[in-house]
Amino acid sequence: MIKGVLFDLDGTLLDTAPDLVASLNYLRNGLGLAAMPIDDLRHFVSRGARGLIKAGMPPCDEETLSKWLASFLVYYEKNSFIHSQPFDGVKALLSELEGRNIPWGIVTNKMEYLSFPIIEKAGWASSAAAVVCGDTLENNKPHPAPVLAACQMMGVAPENTLMVGDDIRDIEAGRRAGSRTAFVLYGYADSGSHSDIIGDAALIKAPQEVLELLEIPGPGV
């Protein structure tokens, strides 16, 4: 039985694509390039800033990529919660989990200095039982260490924890930690290619479907 739930941040709890793509378009504007539509880049958001830049900027060498990344992060830090918002149903889901006394937490590969202000502005700083970011530990997802650390913070055994995310790294981290996993289809995942990467992870089309997984026994139970 699931006694705790962990969520990825971007593309799972929050639709952060508008502000991330705006930061990319800030870079493009600096080169005199036209802004790109959010929908053209939404599927790249879960790959992090570096992956988003590679998808939306001209081909370049590593030195140029590093300079673009630095400029991107400076802009994004100041504009990270302008148009970002929880996906429909997320607030109701988190409220229901709290009402059932089921702790929940966040495991993200986004750095702490970017994550904590966003979590604070979303109103979750006091309600999240665990927050593990990309630089909290030596390793980040898909390594299992962040999931295991978050489970310890929540006081829930990994086998009684559900890891929810929209990227293969979320699923791998949860699986390697010994947790149940759920792959979300409403976020930034490429729904056309998910079948070959998620394995035995549950598929959810809306946040509320997490509740349906809470009472399902795990393998061997």
Class per helix and strand makeup: alpha/beta
Number of strands: 8
Strand order of the largest sheet: 5-4-1-6-7-8
Q: What's the overall average pLDDT, rounded?
A: 92
**Taking Cα atoms only, what radius of gyration do you get, to the nearest Å?**
17 Å
Task: Using the coordinates above, name the CATH class of the largest domain.
Answer: Alpha Beta
The global form is elongated
- Tell me the CATH superfamily of the largest domain: HAD superfamily/HAD-like
Keywords:
alpha/beta; six-stranded parallel β-sheet; Rossmann fold; 2 domains; two-stranded antiparallel ribbon; 221 residues; 9 helices
Q: What's a quick, concise take on this entry?
A:
The chain is α/β, with parallel strands linked by helices and about 220 residues long.
Helix-strand blueprint:
Blueprint: E1 4-7, E2 14-15, H1 17-30, H2 38-41, H3 48-56, H4 62-78, E3 85-86, H5 90-99, E4 104-107, H6 112-122, E5 130-132, H7 145-154, E6 161-165, H8 168-177, E7 180-184, E8 202-204, H9 210-213
Parallel strand pairs: 1-4, 1-6, 4-5, 6-7, 7-8
Antiparallel strand pairs: 2-3
